[in-house]
Amino acid sequence: MRRPTFDLDVLRTFVTGVEFNSFAKAADRLGRSTSAVSAQLKKLEEQIGTPVLAKSGRGLVLTPAGESLLSHARRLLELNDGIFQTLHESQTAGTIRLGLQEDFGEHLLSEILRRFVQTYPMVILEVRIARNAELLALVESAGLDLALTWDTGHMSPYATRLGETQMHWIGARDMPSLTRLADSPLPLIMFDAPCVLRSAATQALDAAKIPWRIALTSPSVASIWAAVAAGLGLTLRTRIGLPSHLAVVSGLPAVPSLGYVLHSSGEDPTPAIRQLAALIKTSLQEHTFGFAVAQ
Length: 295
Hints:
It contains 10 helices and 13 strands. It is rod-shaped, with a radius of gyration of 30 Å. It has helices at 8-20, 23-30, 34-48, 64-90, 102-119, 132-140, 178-181, 196-207, 221-229, 271-286; strands at residues 53-56, 59-62, 94-100, 123-129, 146-150, 158-166, 168-172, 186-190, 212-217, 235-237, 246-248, 257-264, 291-293. The protein starts with 7 loop residues before the first helix and ends with a strand. Helix content is 44%, strand content 23%.
């Protein structure tokens, strides 16, 4: 049996007339004649097989069927209008400025871009790979629309903590044993201060009374991996992007998990920015880096 299909134009006329409490005003608002509106209402009642309006004095009131129809009609129209708005916005050109820590940029960016362009092919993404302090400053000055950073305790006005991942001591697979390294201060390879992972490493070693020294500093994660692979020392990072020729080192003080936060530059982001934020959260949930995602 073929199911009848509501005419959304007719439903819009019905809803507009009820909201204006006048179908003459609805006709004027919708750019139709009053006779055309009457014909639409007659068509609607014939389709559902019962009156939706009843006379009450000099006016009209909703019947029980009309009350039920009004609720459903509003939802149908909201859904219809929302679909058209989304499709229109997806074809609207614009630019979104996204900031990422280097750890996230290398392993999440290509997947996020691929998914985002499927919905918003006309939107240009400007991506900046930088450290926490720079990303936070750009968000607060509206130089970025979104930024994914480590949780350093500094929360911007519109920030969401997405989850956390474990930090690990990392060294070369063929590095000397920790017993041999214990003869001298433990060589560390780190970012320049301030750095949340550097602080976590030195605090953990100090608490365990293990002497340490900074053997090398670098502004890039790739350079840190290279220095560790060369046997210059250990580093403290997460498993994100951990090269296969490096390994997690046991026998050193335990370190806490490290949270990650998504910052927005405004309270009311555009649909495209909201979609990008959702894709970032989804990508983090799908990767297996030991993430614990906030609920």
